[in-house]
Amino acid sequence: MAFDGRDEPLPNRLLTLALLLLLLCAIVAFFNIEYFASAYAGIVAFLVIPAAIGGLISHLFDPGGRQTPMGCFFWPTVGLLVIVTFAWAIFEEGAICIAMVLPIWIPAAIFGALMNRYNARRDRQHNNPARLNSVAWLSIPLLMVTWDATMPTHWQTRSVVREVVIDANREDIWPLLLRVPNISRGEGVANFTQDILGVPRPTHADLVARADRLVRIAHWGEDLSFEEAIIVKKPGELLSWQFVFPNKSVQYHTDNHISPNGPLLKIDSGRYELLALRNGRSLLRLTTEYEMRTRLGVYLGWWGERLLGDVQDNVLAVIKDRAEGRKANS
């Protein structure tokens, strides 16, 4: 895995380094230009760009393709981890974004490094100059990202459902669906999304009347808030709502580049359903519906199931514990 300086003169290696830095600057610009917003969760962002980074890193450290394939695993992985660390420290990239991209970025970068190794060995055998390989690693993603942005895919509707059995009747549970005051840090359940990735936990929810409608205002942590405009209210049976995001606090605590009501993602609606069971127990079902626009629906849908599911499990646990505690104290 050692750097081999015999394969390419210093000016060409400096060109490769310059192209790598230029690609990274283009990525920063790409994630901050609204025109490309529909491509943030596209094939180019998740596959082509990391492959290009891996190819350039490989060309920088092994321009002649002399190292073993293990170097194609080592250098791109280390390089991406360094890049992500800088993105987290300097650009305040969110933990959710990093967790979502790394499982795909690292294999894609390794693939790019292996492709560069293959091309470098072939060029060396035929005495061809290798500098065009590094130029291609820059030009191809920049061309493809325009295609990804101008031809976005269709919206896909998804739903995440969680439910819990509560040892209490529906009349005791219903008030907790409307208002949940003073939620302490110790309530709820531990989960990956809130305890590892750092999404704030709920602190309280209040129901207020506005003009001709009811709105439940949810507060998470110290400064994250959003609203749920009530659509259907059937006491003891059903409560449904439309999500409203009057500020950017949700975006700030999840992913600065993806709005919960933007060109890629729309967290649309939710509902509680209460079903009576035997022996005075009840089943509480929480559903969240959202839409997303991406060519990686299977992968990002899996993340949606995990992230929203964790939040739902925590909310249901708080309601269950309070309802059962209220029954025990009555």
Structure commentary:
By secondary structure, the protein is α+β, with helices and mostly antiparallel strands. It folds into 2 domains: 10-150, no CATH class; 156-329, Alpha-D-Glucose-1,6-Bisphosphate, Chain A, domain 4 (2-Layer Sandwich). Helices cover 50% and strands 21% of the residues. The protein is built from 9 helices and 7 strands. The chain has helices spanning 10-30, 43-61, 69-90, 95-125, 131-150, 170-178, 192-195, 249-254, 297-329, and strands at 156-166, 202-210, 213-220, 224-234, 238-244, 265-276, 282-292. Strands 1-7-6-5-4-3-2 form a 7-stranded antiparallel sheet. Helix 2 (43-61) packs across helix 4. The termini are far apart. The model is unreliable at 1-6 (pLDDT under 50).
CATH architecture of the largest domain: 2-Layer Sandwich
Order of helices and strands: HHHHHEHHEEEEHEEH
Instruction: Identify the strand order in the major beta sheet.
Output: 1-7-6-5-4-3-2
Helix content: 40-55%
Look at the helices and sheets and give the structural class: alpha+beta
CATH fold node name of the largest domain: Alpha-D-Glucose-1,6-Bisphosphate, Chain A, domain 4
* Shape descriptor: elongated
Provide the residue-averaged pLDDT: 88
Name given to the CATH homologous superfamily of the largest domain: START domain
User: Which ranges are low-confidence, i.e. pLDDT below 50, for 5 or more consecutive residues?
Assistant: 1-6
Our Rg estimate from Cα atoms comes to 25 Å
Q: How many separate domains?
A: 2
**What is the total tally of β strands?**
7
Count of helical segments? 9
CATH class descriptor of the largest domain: Alpha Beta
Q: Gap between N and C termini, in Å? A: 69 Å
**Biggest sheet descriptor:** 7 strands, antiparallel
Strand content: 15-25%
